[in-house]
Amino acid sequence: MMHILETERLILRPPELADAARIQALADDPDVAGMLTPMPFPYTLESAESWIRLGHAEIESGESYPFVIIRKADNLLIGAVEIGNEVRHHRGEMGYWLGKAYWGQGYVTEAARRVVQFGFEVVGLHRIFATHYAHNPASGRVMQKIGMKYEGTLRGHIVKWDKPVDLLMYAILRDEWHLSQSPSPAS
Ligand SMILES: CC(C)(COP(=O)(O)OP(=O)(O)OC[C@H]1O[C@@H](n2cnc3c(N)ncnc32)[C@H](O)[C@@H]1OP(=O)(O)O)[C@@H](O)C(=O)NCCC(=O)NCCS
């Protein structure tokens, strides 16, 4: 089932093949593709098309929910966010990226917060986790801002571009998220 999510400034919708050229233009950047384990570099039109096709199959099977991030003000595609669904463990991994021109304006925090809500309320997850490379603290900051907790560092867990990289693991559990949604007691 296809889902479209909305926030104050953004629409999150499933990617379409017509988005491929725009996705490639933004993702074919070492500062973007270099921060996500599954992203190839160079990031070609075919890379974008295969992510979109795989995404359609995964949405169909309920394994993952990829979204492109559209800025409402100008209808521009500025990045992507995805949440997986490992059904057996009711757990999902979230990942995200933005084109460089759009960094530092709170867009990913806004998108990721909405996707966490979707993961708990619609997908029915119990745990949502995300990892970031040790040399990418901005992504860790997003995880903190959306209420995820640091759980530890997986030392040299992956090799990206021939170099071992430390991964910092963050997660939020459904109960914690529910608590954070309830209104704070009146003072
Ligand atoms: C990391 C990324 C997703 C952040 O998206 P964004 O929309 O710019 O993030 P936001 O503006 O919502 O928040 C970024 C936070 O990181 C902080 N930050 C930025 N650079 C930082 C740095 N070098 N060290 C520490 N914090 C940093 C910002 O100050 C901000 O926190 P604040 O609101 O407390 O000031 C974006 O830069 C990106 O797409 N990078 C390339 C791909 C990527 O790294 N994806 C994540 C892989 S795990």
Explain how this protein is built:
The longest helix has 17 residues, at 45-61. The radius of gyration is 16 Å and the shape is globular. It has a single domain, classed as Aminopeptidase. A hairpin with a 3-residue loop joins β1 (5-6) and β2 (10-13). The protein is α+β, with helices and mostly antiparallel strands. α1 crosses α3 (45-61). It has helices spanning 20-27, 30-33, 45-61, 107-123, 137-145, 174-181; strands at residues 5-6, 10-13, 64-71, 76-84, 91-98, 127-133, 149-160, 163-173. The chain binds coenzyme A. Coenzyme A (COA) binds next to β5, α4 and α5.
Helix and strand topology:
Layout: E1 5-6, E2 10-13, H1 20-27, H2 30-33, H3 45-61, E3 64-71, E4 76-84, E5 91-98, H4 107-123, E6 127-133, H5 137-145, E7 149-160, E8 163-173, H6 174-181
Parallel strand pairs: 5-6
Antiparallel strand pairs: 1-2, 2-3, 3-4, 4-5, 6-8, 7-8
Helix pairs in contact: 1-3
Bound molecules: coenzyme A.
Kindly report the spatial arrangement of strands forming the biggest sheet: 1-2-3-4-5-6-8-7
* N-to-C span: 43 Å
Give the CATH superfamily.
Gcn5-related N-acetyltransferase (GNAT)
Class by alpha and beta content: alpha+beta
Tally of alpha and pi helices: 6
User: Using DSSP, what is the number of strands?
Assistant: 8
User: How many structural domains are formed by the residues?
Assistant: 1
Task: Summarize the main sheet.
Answer: 8 strands, mixed
State the share of residues found in helices, binned by percent.
Answer: 25-40%
Heterogens: coenzyme A
Query: What does the overall shape look like?
Result: globular
Order of helices and strands: EEHHHEEEHEHEEH
